[in-house]
């Protein structure tokens, strides 16, 4: 069997095609990352008039700071909650839509719309829904005997930001789950049905294992999303409060760097956050991928 090999008419054409992506990566990722790494080794005053090289002192102080350790715990809870909620609901919606025949495209379009909303707007929408004074959800919960107030309760605040962040990501997950479901051969499912397997058993023994590549990919994407792309949701809903209950790592980088003007500590936090995400991605590809069936 012969394999076709792509040939380019000019020697520099492949490099020219790669150049835009390489330039964008250098400008918007490599350069900022190198600057953050360099700045994490410095101590600067708020006006940038004096800079002192302190080595790893910023990192040592962070791991001895109770507020930073609390932010790590909050980030872990927030990331797990957002990932599990968004992926589980997206899988349920994708399975439901996939069983439809006539209205599948219409439902898919409606489910995609929330992904086009900016994170800050999504946060504001859920802030109004859960507002203790004018929100419909606190009114219904009050009728059931529960006094909702995310301004004073850390648990309520955490639940609010998890719901808002997960809702923003569900549409993205639905698209990939739906594509994965449609790629599964129907003959396998029909054969299991003929053998007498129930719908639930067919899903857990045939459909879900064949969805493992899609699930693994979305697991990585959702963890990165929860740790990096949820700043707007946090800022619009709770601003890290109450009492640091929703102050995740990416928001603490902003609060310490742009509000507190502690630039060295903020840069060190961004380096640690980047290292955590890289480590989680490596662990996922190294160990979790072994259970994936391609």
Order of helices and strands: HEEHHHHHHHHHHHH
Q: How many domains make up the coordinates?
A: 1
CATH class: Mainly Alpha
**Low-pLDDT runs:** none
The CATH level-2 architecture is identified as Orthogonal Bundle
Largest sheet: 2 strands, antiparallel
CATH topology: MetI-like fold
Taking Cα atoms only, what radius of gyration do you get, to the nearest Å? 23 Å
Looking at the chains present, what oligomeric state does this protein adopt?
A: single chain
In whole angstroms, the N-to-C terminal distance is: 24 Å
Class of secondary structure makeup: mainly alpha
* Molecular shape: globular
| Order of strands across the main sheet | 1-2
Would you count the extended β strands for me? Answer: 2
Helix content: 55-70%
Q: Can you count the helices?
A: 13
Q: What's the name of the CATH homologous superfamily? A: MetI-like
Mean of all residue-level pLDDT scores: 88
Describe this structure in words.
The protein is an all-alpha fold. It has a single domain (66-293), classed as MetI-like fold (Orthogonal Bundle). The chain has helices at residues 13-39, 57-63, 66-98, 104-112, 119-129, 136-143, 154-182, 186-194, 199-210, 212-228, 231-237, 249-259, 263-286, and strands spanning 42-44, 51-53. A two-stranded antiparallel sheet has the order 1-2. Helix 3 runs parallel beside helix 7 (154-182) and helix 8 runs antiparallel to helix 9 (199-210). The longest helix is centred in the first third of the chain and has 33 residues, at 66-98. It is globular. The two termini are 24 Å apart. The mean pLDDT is 88.
